[in-house]
Each structure stands twice: as C-alpha cells, then as structure tokens.
Amino acid sequence: MCSKKKNFFSRLNIFSKKKILIESKYKEKNNLIHSDKSTSKNQFFSFFKNSLKTAKDFFTLSIKNIFSEKKLDKRIFKKLENLLLLSDFGTSSTKKILSMFKIAIKKKNITESTVAIKIFKKQLLNMLKINKKIDRNINSSMPFVILVVGVNGVGKTTTIVKLAHYYKKLGKTVLLSAGDTFRSAAIDQLIELGLKYNISVFSKSLGSDPASVVFDSIQNAIKKKIDILIIDTAGRLHNKNHLIQELQKINRVIEKFYLTSFYEIFLVLDAGIGQNSVQQAKIFSANLNITGSIITKLDGTAKGGVIFSIFSDLLIPVCYICTGEKITDFKIFNRKNFINSFLNIC
Questions:
Q1: I need a surface site. Which of 126, 151, 306, 339 has the fewest CB within 10 A?
Q2: Phi, psi at residue 265, to the nearest 5°?
Q3: Are strands 228-232 and 174-178 parallel, antiparallel or unpaired?
Q4: How far is 281 from 238, CA to CA, in rounded Å?
Q5: How far is 178 from 201, CA to CA, in rounded Å?
Q6: CA nearest to 148, candidates 157, 138, 136
Q7: Which UniProt key words apply to this protein (predicted)?
Q8: What residues have CB less than 8 Å from 81, skipping those under 6 apart?
Q9: What is the mean pLDDT of the chain?
Q10: Distance of alpha carbon 55 from alpha carbon 98, whole angstroms
Q11: The whole model's pTM is what?
C-alpha cells in the first residue's frame, strides 16, 4: 500500500516538473498565440485563449502527450487521472470524466488515439452541461437585485464593480450597495471605484447594521427606478457561523421585497486556490440558495479544472469569469469557448 502511494506521488512530482518546463518554454514562445479580432466571437475566443495560456499550454501539451501513444490501455487512463487531479478537477469530477470516457470508447469501439482525444473533449463539454440564463429582462417597477458573497481575498469588491460596469455597457442603470460595514476600507474602496467608473454607490456609516443598509439601498433603488442593485457584503469566513447568519439575515430582508426567482445570489470563488474553492462553495450553498458563481483569477493559473468540480459536485452554474485586473477582464461564462481555450486540441 505504501509503495502504491509512493508511486502515485512520484508521478505527480513528475507532472509538476513537466509543468514548470512547459511554462518556461511557452514564456519564450508567446508569439505562437495569436488572436483574431475580426468578429465578436473570435474576440471572445482570443480573450480566453490569452488569459488562460499558462493553464492551457500545460494541460493541452500533457493531453497531447498522453494520447500520442497508439494503444489505449490502462496506462493512458492512469496518466489522465493524474493530470486531472493535478489540474484541480477534484476526485469526484475526475472519476466521472474517466468513467464517461471509458464507456464512450467501449461503446464506439475506439482504438485510435486521434479519435479518442475528440471523445475526451466531448466528455469535458458534457460535464459543463448546466446552463444558466442570466436574467436581463428587468422589471421597470422593481430593481433586479444581485447579492454577492464570498470569503476574504477572492477579489469580491472589484468583481462587483466589473459586474456593474458590464451591465452599464448593456445600457442598464446600476446602483452598488456597500453592505460591508465592518471595514472602512471596504466602503471607501467601493465609493472610490464607483467614482472612477461613474457607478452610483449607496452607503451608510461604518458599523451600521448590514441588513439595514441593504433594506435602505433597496428602497433607494426603487425610488430612483434603478434597473440593477448589486449588494456587496463583508468577506465571510465560510466556517464562521455568526457571519453566515448575518448573510441569512440580509437574505431575509431581500425576501421581504422579492420572490426568490426575482433576485440572484452569486458566490465569488478564486480559481487559484483550487479545491479549497469547492469547500467554500459547499458551506455557502448549504446555508444560502446560491444561484450562480463568478470565478476570479483565471489568468495564468494551472487550476482551471476547479470549474468542473463546481458544476459536477455542487450543480452551481458558473455565470461569469474574471481573467485579469482590467475592468473589461470580465465575461459571461461560455462552456464551449472555455473548453476550446483550455484544450485547443481538436
């Protein structure tokens, strides 16, 4: 048993070394990656392609290396398993992907690696089959509310501003609610970014009850006939019960104005911390009706596989992704574009 564990971690170590070599190689050959801006579709693809190049290069070349072997045997499946785990797909998602892949190959009697790699890509697409239609049909009499939650350090406040900017570009009026009243820096940051990008911010004094801030901001949004109200919240440690209870209190305030189908609760997750994001999502989704997620810090990370775990294990759709620090580094998540950019194999 100890020998098997040793061999497993030895293989992971080999993959880690390969990753470092591949990343080094592609830093010198960035000119091989080009973006086609002739259409909006190509611009979207290029956006993903450039932002995810570190993860994509490592994963793509590793996949190609695995499927370069002519014979599809147990060794290939083991290498795939190691690669998926290393790329933060998680144990559960890895098992599901490999199981579907084996069934598909057996059913179609696939023996050629060139065909098998396309089947593998299809299985990854199937893992992301949950679709979330973002509601942009705003009721003229009531603002559409988006409550944004997440732990400290995931880039929640800046993500909220990006989300607001995104909707403003669509012609919507947006109001931000400074629901994080525990830190003066949080209120100041939101107001500062609001001024920078011409986005209105509703705030109250430091130490105010967050639920009362939310209540007043909803009334303010209704009075001003705002299309979308986006609520910031304090960075919640997902294992702190009293902080989760505060979020539940805020949620009850929103429910006084809305049915659950008329507002969203988005969870912001950091792709860079891999499976820790999944653990955070489990706690939040157990206590709140999380309707979607926003994945941040996808730029240059080798842990893009965490998206598969969020879909597969928790059935939480990924609605938006952030792949950089610019205000425009924010897009609606598209599974086909993500897979094409992440793999770029066929």
A1: 126
A2: -120, 105
A3: parallel
A4: 9
A5: 7
A6: 157
A7: Cell membrane, Cytoplasm, GTP-binding, Hydrolase, Membrane, Nucleotide-binding, Receptor
A8: 94, 98
A9: 80
A10: 20
A11: 0.79
